[in-house]
Amino acid sequence: MRLSLTLLGRFQGAVGGRGLALPTRKSQALLAYLAVLPGELHLRDKLAALLWGSSGREQARHSLRQSLSTLRVALVTSRVPVLTITHTGVVFDEAAADVDVARFERLASRDSLRALKEAEALYRGDLLDGLDVSEEGFEEWLRGERARLREHAVGALTRLASYQAEAGEVEAAIQTALRLVGLDPLREEFHRLLISLYTRLGRIGDAVQQYRACTAVLRRELGVEPTRETQRVYYSALSQGRSALPSPLRATSGPAGRVIPTGVPPRAVR
Question: Given pLDDT bands bounded at 50, 70 and 90, which one contains residue 90?
Answer without folding.
Answer: very high
